[in-house]
Amino acid sequence: MFKQILLPLDFEHQELYPQVVESALQLCHPQGQIHLLYVNSARIHHAAAPLMSNELIGSMDKTMEQQLADFMARHIPVALQGQIWIKHGVVYDTILARARKHRTDLIVMPASRPGAGTYLLGSNASRVVRHADCAVLVIR
Q: For helices 91-101 and 123-131, what crossing angle results, to 10°?
């Protein structure tokens, strides 16, 4: 059983979320916590950066924080609810940094359908699996 579980969510692969949550709940220690993370990469991929003001980014972050809070309230029992983090950066780097900083025991994350460039896993899931200091469960 794992005491500190991190669920990086982007609301792109919501069809996988029941499996992600169920897996986390089954693997969580009774005194453990399940934490949620959203990584906003809007300014990292510079194409949209000039069009996005600080106010727009802040508004997006607040909206995502509310969505994560609602998700946590609906799907994670109160006794297991951990923290919610909204971070900015490269998705896989930010997931790995948050997991290290918080001493996460397990990362449970959805994976997109692979394309030719990623073949087996999505690029973020693949990089997290290869570089994480903890166990990683990828749900497809």
A: 30
- Alpha-carbon span 121 to 136, nearest angstrom: 13
The C-alpha atoms of residue 21 and residue 80 are separated, in whole angstroms, by 12
Q: Strand 28-40: give its sheet, edge to edge.
A: 81-88, 28-40, 2-8, 106-110, 135-139
Whole-angstrom distance, CA of residue 121 vs CA of residue 109: 11
* pLDDT in 10s for each residue of the chain, 140 residues: 999 999 999 877 788 899 999 999 999 999 999 999 999 887 776 555 566 778 888 898 999 999 999 999 999 999 999 999 999 999 999 999 999 999 999 999 988 655 544 444 568 888 999 999 999 999 98
Instruction: Determine the Cα–Cα distance for residues 25 and 74; give it in Å rounded to an integer.
Output: 13
Note whether 35 and 85 are within 8 A (CB): yes
DSSP per residue, 73-125: HHHS-GGGEEEEEEEES-HHHHHHHHHHHTT-SEEEEE-PPP-TTTTTS-HHH
Q: What is the pTM of this model?
A: 0.88
